[in-house]
Design goal:
- With 81 residues, this protein is of the alpha+beta class.
- The protein folds into two domains: 28 residues, no CATH class; 51 residues, no CATH class.
- It is 37% helix and 10% strand.
- The chain has a two-stranded antiparallel sheet.
Amino acid sequence: MFEFKYKIKNNQLVKRIGEKPIPDDEPVFVFRAKDRKALGALMSYNAVLDTLEQKEAVTKAINAFREFQENNPEKMAEPTP
């Protein structure tokens, strides 16, 4: 199973490794696998990454999103504001 880079701890978004919190004043954008546009966005992001380590991590996310979407077509939706 794919392990995400961040998690919620004590009602705060933290990096899994080291549990360093994301500052409240830093914008964060979240993709959900049920969003029909998310997979394409992740693939575009992966195309501009610089390091193999980054590409491998995002490729894992791409594969997890693709698997979710293939196994849950009834949950898929267009993004909403």
